[in-house]
Write a sequence for this structure.
């Protein structure tokens, strides 16, 4: 009986440690650049979240934007650039008034503007309603991309 009780307590303890409702970035859809908590929540749920350090918001005058600072993710440059493109598209989809998104790494900074990304993706991010729709769009575009250089040369 003691073993059963101990096992039951252990199972209940472990069950309490898991969170089946892990937040996704799309919970913040419709947020504004000035909503610091939303911007941090998005940063914490996108790729590279494990390297996230801080965020700076530009809200006083247009163009409204944000800079997300990261530690060195320890990955190849091409993969880092692909993730930066994905994250920028997510920010533009989730934060309608974001006009510029920057990702600052120790040795490199990537800057994205909404008009350039919408032209490159051939879509209006405001029309994307679901996470799956954004993922499909990014996968289609990035699979065709032989090198991220072609994106960065274009913009």
């Amino acid at each position: 009986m003691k073993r059963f009780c101990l096992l039951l307590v252990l199972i209940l303890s472990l069950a309490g440690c898991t969170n089946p409702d892990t937040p996704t970035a799309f919970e913040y859809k419709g947020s504004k650049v000035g909503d610091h908590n939303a911007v941090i929540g998005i940063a914490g749920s996108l790729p590279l979240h494990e390297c996230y350090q801080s965020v700076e918001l530009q809200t006083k005058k247009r163009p409204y934007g944000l800079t997300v600072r990261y530690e060195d993710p320890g990955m190849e440059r091409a993969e880092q650039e692909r993730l930066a493109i994905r994250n920028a598209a997510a920010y533009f989809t989730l934060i309608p008034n974001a006009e510029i998104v920057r990702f600052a790494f120790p040795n490199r900074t990537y800057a994205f503007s909404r008009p350039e990304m919408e032209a490159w993706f051939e879509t209006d991010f405001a029309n994307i309603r679901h996470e799956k729709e954004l993922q499909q769009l990014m996968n289609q575009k990035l699979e065709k991309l032989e090198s991220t250089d072609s994106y960065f040369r274009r913009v």
